[in-house]
Amino acid sequence: MTKLISLSEAISTYVQDGDTLYASGFTHLIPFAAGHEIIRQRKRDLVLARATPDLIYDQMVAAGCAGKVIWSYMGNPGVGSLRIVRGAVERGELEWEEYSHFGMITRLQAGASGLPFLPMNQTGATDLENANPLIKRIPDPYGGKDVIVVPALNPDVAIVHVQRADANGNAHLWGIIGEQKEAAFAAKKVILTAEEIVDESVISCTRCAMCRMPVTRPMRRAIMTATTNSIWAGIRSVLHRKLSRTGWMSGFME
Protein backbone atom coordinates (compact mmCIF):
# COMPACT_ATOMS: atom_id res chain seq x y z
CA MET A 1 0.00 0.00 0.00
CA THR A 2 1.37 3.40 -0.95
CA LYS A 3 2.20 5.85 1.83
CA LEU A 4 2.15 8.81 -0.54
CA ILE A 5 -0.16 11.64 0.56
CA SER A 6 -0.16 15.40 0.11
CA LEU A 7 1.92 17.59 2.42
CA SER A 8 -1.25 19.37 3.55
CA GLU A 9 -2.86 16.09 4.56
CA ALA A 10 0.30 14.86 6.31
CA ILE A 11 0.55 17.98 8.46
CA SER A 12 -3.17 18.01 9.19
CA THR A 13 -3.19 14.32 10.18
CA TYR A 14 0.10 13.87 12.01
CA VAL A 15 0.91 17.25 13.58
CA GLN A 16 -1.44 18.25 16.39
CA ASP A 17 -1.44 21.33 18.61
CA GLY A 18 0.89 20.83 21.58
CA ASP A 19 3.01 18.16 19.86
CA THR A 20 6.77 17.96 20.22
CA LEU A 21 8.08 18.43 16.68
CA TYR A 22 11.59 17.66 15.46
CA ALA A 23 12.29 19.09 12.00
CA SER A 24 15.65 17.50 11.26
CA GLY A 25 18.28 18.16 8.62
CA PHE A 26 20.87 20.80 7.80
CA THR A 27 21.43 23.21 4.89
CA HIS A 28 19.84 21.60 1.78
CA LEU A 29 17.80 19.14 3.89
CA ILE A 30 15.97 21.65 6.11
CA PRO A 31 12.23 20.89 5.65
CA PHE A 32 11.08 24.43 4.85
CA ALA A 33 8.01 23.33 2.89
CA ALA A 34 6.68 21.35 5.86
CA GLY A 35 7.37 24.26 8.21
CA HIS A 36 5.49 26.66 5.95
CA GLU A 37 2.55 24.25 5.78
CA ILE A 38 2.47 24.15 9.60
CA ILE A 39 2.31 27.95 9.58
CA ARG A 40 -0.51 27.94 6.99
CA GLN A 41 -2.53 25.51 9.11
CA ARG A 42 -2.02 27.69 12.20
CA LYS A 43 -0.75 24.92 14.47
CA ARG A 44 -0.30 26.16 18.04
CA ASP A 45 1.66 25.44 21.24
CA LEU A 46 4.20 23.22 19.51
CA VAL A 47 7.42 22.24 21.27
CA LEU A 48 9.99 22.87 18.56
CA ALA A 49 13.10 20.73 19.07
CA ARG A 50 16.11 20.88 16.79
CA ALA A 51 19.88 20.68 17.17
CA THR A 52 20.21 23.97 15.30
CA PRO A 53 16.96 25.95 15.06
CA ASP A 54 17.30 27.60 11.69
CA LEU A 55 15.27 30.29 9.93
CA ILE A 56 12.33 27.88 9.64
CA TYR A 57 11.91 27.87 13.43
CA ASP A 58 12.29 31.66 13.54
CA GLN A 59 9.41 31.86 11.08
CA MET A 60 7.29 29.39 13.04
CA VAL A 61 7.84 31.26 16.30
CA ALA A 62 6.99 34.56 14.56
CA ALA A 63 3.77 32.97 13.28
CA GLY A 64 2.73 31.99 16.81
CA CYS A 65 3.09 28.22 16.33
CA ALA A 66 5.43 27.55 19.25
CA GLY A 67 5.05 27.40 23.02
CA LYS A 68 8.57 26.12 23.68
CA VAL A 69 11.88 25.61 21.89
CA ILE A 70 14.59 23.03 22.61
CA TRP A 71 17.92 23.65 20.91
CA SER A 72 21.69 23.34 20.96
CA TYR A 73 22.60 26.41 18.91
CA MET A 74 20.06 29.08 18.10
CA GLY A 75 21.16 30.61 14.86
CA ASN A 76 22.02 30.39 11.20
CA PRO A 77 25.59 30.57 9.85
CA GLY A 78 24.54 33.23 7.38
CA VAL A 79 22.43 35.51 9.58
CA GLY A 80 23.67 34.83 13.11
CA SER A 81 21.38 34.54 16.13
CA LEU A 82 17.70 34.05 15.39
CA ARG A 83 16.16 37.44 16.13
CA ILE A 84 12.53 36.38 16.64
CA VAL A 85 13.28 33.37 18.85
CA ARG A 86 15.87 35.26 20.88
CA GLY A 87 13.53 38.18 21.48
CA ALA A 88 10.67 35.92 22.58
CA VAL A 89 12.96 34.07 25.00
CA GLU A 90 14.37 37.28 26.46
CA ARG A 91 10.87 38.69 26.99
CA GLY A 92 9.74 35.50 28.73
CA GLU A 93 7.17 34.73 26.04
CA LEU A 94 8.66 31.38 25.09
CA GLU A 95 9.79 28.42 27.22
CA TRP A 96 13.20 27.02 26.33
CA GLU A 97 15.78 24.30 26.99
CA GLU A 98 19.38 24.49 25.82
CA TYR A 99 21.91 21.69 25.36
CA SER A 100 25.24 21.20 23.64
CA HIS A 101 25.11 19.71 20.15
CA PHE A 102 26.28 16.38 21.52
CA GLY A 103 23.72 16.66 24.30
CA MET A 104 20.86 16.98 21.80
CA ILE A 105 22.09 14.08 19.68
CA THR A 106 22.55 11.97 22.82
CA ARG A 107 18.97 12.73 23.82
CA LEU A 108 17.75 11.50 20.44
CA GLN A 109 19.98 8.43 20.64
CA ALA A 110 18.53 7.58 24.05
CA GLY A 111 15.01 7.96 22.67
CA ALA A 112 15.83 5.84 19.63
CA SER A 113 17.33 3.14 21.87
CA GLY A 114 14.34 2.98 24.21
CA LEU A 115 16.42 4.17 27.17
CA PRO A 116 15.38 6.79 29.76
CA PHE A 117 18.72 8.62 29.47
CA LEU A 118 22.28 8.24 28.21
CA PRO A 119 25.60 9.36 29.70
CA MET A 120 28.20 11.63 28.11
CA ASN A 121 31.70 12.70 28.98
CA GLN A 122 31.98 16.00 30.79
CA THR A 123 32.22 19.03 28.52
CA GLY A 124 33.36 22.60 28.96
CA ALA A 125 29.75 23.83 28.88
CA THR A 126 29.33 23.83 32.65
CA ASP A 127 27.07 26.91 32.54
CA LEU A 128 24.47 24.81 30.71
CA GLU A 129 24.23 22.59 33.79
CA ASN A 130 23.29 25.65 35.85
CA ALA A 131 20.76 26.87 33.27
CA ASN A 132 19.15 23.51 32.55
CA PRO A 133 18.24 21.28 35.52
CA LEU A 134 17.64 18.33 33.16
CA ILE A 135 21.40 18.10 32.58
CA LYS A 136 22.73 16.13 35.54
CA ARG A 137 25.96 14.63 36.83
CA ILE A 138 26.05 11.14 38.28
CA PRO A 139 28.93 9.05 39.66
CA ASP A 140 30.61 6.60 37.32
CA PRO A 141 29.59 3.19 38.76
CA TYR A 142 32.97 1.84 37.68
CA GLY A 143 34.99 4.34 39.67
CA GLY A 144 35.89 6.97 37.10
CA LYS A 145 35.01 10.65 37.14
CA ASP A 146 31.39 11.79 37.13
CA VAL A 147 29.49 11.63 33.85
CA ILE A 148 26.85 13.93 32.37
CA VAL A 149 23.43 12.42 31.68
CA VAL A 150 20.60 13.81 29.57
CA PRO A 151 17.00 12.52 29.28
CA ALA A 152 15.66 10.73 26.24
CA LEU A 153 13.88 12.78 23.60
CA ASN A 154 10.95 11.09 21.85
CA PRO A 155 9.27 13.62 19.57
CA ASP A 156 5.64 13.12 18.66
CA VAL A 157 6.59 13.87 15.05
CA ALA A 158 9.88 14.00 13.16
CA ILE A 159 10.06 15.62 9.74
CA VAL A 160 12.81 14.30 7.47
CA HIS A 161 13.54 15.84 4.07
CA VAL A 162 15.39 13.81 1.43
CA GLN A 163 16.34 14.09 -2.21
CA ARG A 164 14.25 11.14 -3.34
CA ALA A 165 11.95 8.43 -2.00
CA ASP A 166 9.59 5.74 -3.25
CA ALA A 167 5.89 5.40 -2.45
CA ASN A 168 6.64 2.94 0.37
CA GLY A 169 8.71 5.45 2.35
CA ASN A 170 12.19 4.17 1.45
CA ALA A 171 14.51 7.10 0.90
CA HIS A 172 17.89 8.26 -0.33
CA LEU A 173 19.65 11.35 0.99
CA TRP A 174 23.15 12.61 0.41
CA GLY A 175 25.27 15.62 1.25
CA ILE A 176 25.63 16.75 4.84
CA ILE A 177 24.08 13.97 6.92
CA GLY A 178 22.74 15.29 10.18
CA GLU A 179 20.65 13.64 12.86
CA GLN A 180 17.83 12.50 10.57
CA LYS A 181 18.26 8.80 11.40
CA GLU A 182 18.26 9.36 15.16
CA ALA A 183 15.25 11.69 14.95
CA ALA A 184 13.26 9.23 12.84
CA PHE A 185 14.03 6.28 15.13
CA ALA A 186 13.22 8.29 18.27
CA ALA A 187 9.94 9.79 17.01
CA LYS A 188 6.50 8.27 17.34
CA LYS A 189 5.56 9.39 13.82
CA VAL A 190 7.65 10.42 10.81
CA ILE A 191 6.74 12.69 7.92
CA LEU A 192 9.09 12.18 4.97
CA THR A 193 9.26 14.91 2.36
CA ALA A 194 11.10 14.28 -0.89
CA GLU A 195 12.15 16.33 -3.88
CA GLU A 196 11.48 13.40 -6.20
CA ILE A 197 9.30 10.28 -6.00
CA VAL A 198 10.96 7.38 -7.80
CA ASP A 199 10.27 3.73 -8.45
CA GLU A 200 11.15 1.27 -5.70
CA SER A 201 13.79 -0.33 -7.94
CA VAL A 202 15.74 2.92 -8.01
CA ILE A 203 15.90 3.09 -4.22
CA SER A 204 16.87 -0.55 -3.81
CA CYS A 205 19.61 -0.66 -6.45
CA THR A 206 21.04 2.81 -6.96
CA ARG A 207 23.91 4.27 -4.93
CA CYS A 208 24.73 0.91 -3.34
CA ALA A 209 26.85 -2.11 -4.30
CA MET A 210 26.03 -5.81 -4.22
CA CYS A 211 28.91 -8.28 -4.28
CA ARG A 212 28.50 -12.02 -4.83
CA MET A 213 30.91 -14.01 -2.69
CA PRO A 214 30.79 -17.69 -3.80
CA VAL A 215 31.92 -20.31 -1.31
CA THR A 216 35.12 -21.87 -2.72
CA ARG A 217 36.11 -25.50 -2.20
CA PRO A 218 38.80 -24.72 0.41
CA MET A 219 36.31 -22.49 2.26
CA ARG A 220 33.61 -25.19 2.10
CA ARG A 221 36.07 -27.79 3.37
CA ALA A 222 37.09 -25.50 6.25
CA ILE A 223 33.44 -24.92 7.17
CA MET A 224 32.68 -28.66 7.11
CA THR A 225 35.76 -29.44 9.20
CA ALA A 226 34.91 -26.79 11.78
CA THR A 227 31.30 -27.95 11.94
CA THR A 228 32.26 -31.62 12.30
CA ASN A 229 34.78 -30.86 15.03
CA SER A 230 32.18 -28.78 16.88
CA ILE A 231 29.57 -31.55 16.71
CA TRP A 232 32.07 -34.20 17.88
CA ALA A 233 33.16 -31.98 20.76
CA GLY A 234 29.52 -31.67 21.81
CA ILE A 235 28.96 -35.43 21.67
CA ARG A 236 32.11 -36.02 23.73
CA SER A 237 30.90 -33.55 26.36
CA VAL A 238 27.44 -35.15 26.67
CA LEU A 239 28.83 -38.71 26.86
CA HIS A 240 31.43 -37.66 29.40
CA ARG A 241 28.72 -36.23 31.70
CA LYS A 242 26.44 -39.27 31.33
CA LEU A 243 29.23 -41.81 31.93
CA SER A 244 30.51 -39.83 34.91
CA ARG A 245 27.05 -39.92 36.53
CA THR A 246 26.81 -43.72 36.08
CA GLY A 247 30.25 -44.32 37.61
CA TRP A 248 31.92 -45.47 34.40
CA MET A 249 35.50 -44.47 33.74
CA SER A 250 35.63 -41.73 31.12
CA GLY A 251 39.30 -42.10 30.32
CA PHE A 252 38.59 -44.16 27.18
CA MET A 253 36.92 -41.11 25.73
CA GLU A 254 40.25 -39.28 25.52
Task: Give the helix/strand class.
Answer: alpha/beta
Number of strands: 12
CATH topology of the largest domain, which one?
Glutaconate Coenzyme A-transferase
Overall outline: globular
Report Rg.
Answer: 27 Å
Counting DSSP H or I runs of 4 or more residues, the number of helices is 9
The number of distinct structural domains comes to 2
Q: What is the share of helical residues?
A: 25-40%
What is the CATH-assigned architecture of the largest domain? Answer: 3-Layer(aba) Sandwich
Low-pLDDT residue intervals, each spanning 5 or more residues = 248-254
- Looking at CATH, the homologous superfamily of the largest domain is Glutaconate Coenzyme A-transferase
Q: Write down the overall mean pLDDT.
A: 85
Please indicate the percent range of residues in DSSP E strands (runs of 2 or more).
15-25%
What does this structure look like?
By secondary structure, the chain is of the alpha/beta class. It folds into two domains: 7-205, Glutaconate Coenzyme A-transferase, CATH 3.40.1080; 217-253, no CATH class. It has helices spanning 7-14, 32-40, 55-62, 83-90, 101-113, 126-131, 180-186, 200-205, 217-245; strands at 20-23, 46-50, 66-71, 75-76, 80-81, 95-98, 117-120, 136-138, 147-151, 157-165, 171-172, 189-197. Strand 8 (136-138) and strand 9 form a beta hairpin. Helix 3 packs across helix 4 and helix 5 packs across helix 7. The longest helix has 29 residues, at 217-245. The radius of gyration is 27 Å and the shape is globular. It starts with 6 loop residues before the first helix and ends in a 9-residue tail after the last helix. Mean pLDDT is 85; it is low at 248-254.
